[in-house]
Amino acid sequence: MKKILLLSSLLLTSPLLQANDTSHWSYSGHAGPQHWAELSTDYASCAGLNQSPINLTGFIEADLKPIDFSYQPGGYQFINNGHTVQINYKKGSSIKIDGIDFNLLQFHFHVPSENHINGKSYPMEAHFVHADTNGNLAVVALMFEEGKKNKELAKAWKYMPESEGDKNKLNPLIDANAVLPANRDYYRFNGSLTTPPCTEGVRWFVIKQTASISKEQLKKIKHALHHQNNRPIQATHARAVLK
Ligand SMILES: [Zn+2]
Q1: CATH code of residue 201
Q2: Radius of gyration (Cα) for the chain, nearest Å?
Q3: With pLDDT > 70 as the criterion, what percentage of the chain qualifies?
Q4: Ligand 1 center to 86 CA (angstroms)
Q5: Alpha carbon distance 216, 221 (integer Å)
Q6: What is the mean pLDDT of residues 142-150?
Q7: Which residues form the domain of 195?
Q8: How far apart are alpha carbons 60 and 65 in whole angstroms?
Q9: Residue 155 falls within a domain, yes or no?
Q10: How many Å lie between the centroid of ligand 1 and the Cα of residue 169?
Q11: What pLDDT sits at residue 23?
């Protein structure tokens, strides 16, 4: 009996088995971004031609209509999934773009930023993830610069999930509307999820106006993430970035 237990515990901790576990991916090493497409057939899109993040540059002037935001306070839970820290959002907040309603599901953070703007990286980027009723995705991205303390995020930072698997209740509810700046002009391009399975066909909107976060707030999120969680810049290929 003892022998069997020992064997099964060896198998469970074997690096070989971990490599074969299709769900396992990371930001460095053998399961890092350069290998995502090889880790599982489910991750084949990670080698696609319309991947995110990108360096936003070579902008094409376009008549971009304002995004119609209908947000209310709804961030009720702060989780750490080992890849990011994420604020899950109650139903009832949405954006309207291209005549389609996309519901806000969650927003999460990358340190440092994933997208670059004219070659510039930012200390942090937030992704507000939305889906329409057909499962089409729209991500609103917001860049943060180090400076003043972010008051709305401070309400969530109090409940920072420090370790993988932590789920903390947020009280009061966080208001995504108060995290976004007043001016919501944006850059637009087509891209993908920036994590496996790297699904393409995602509408990306990067807000031009940056937000602010303090050095102490950055330190706190870095501590919870334990490592950088930005996928490297992907080739733009034939895509246009609209402004
Ligand atoms: Zn993201």
Answers
A1: 3.10.200.10
A2: 19
A3: 91
A4: 9
A5: 9
A6: 98
A7: 42-225
A8: 15
A9: yes
A10: 21
A11: 74
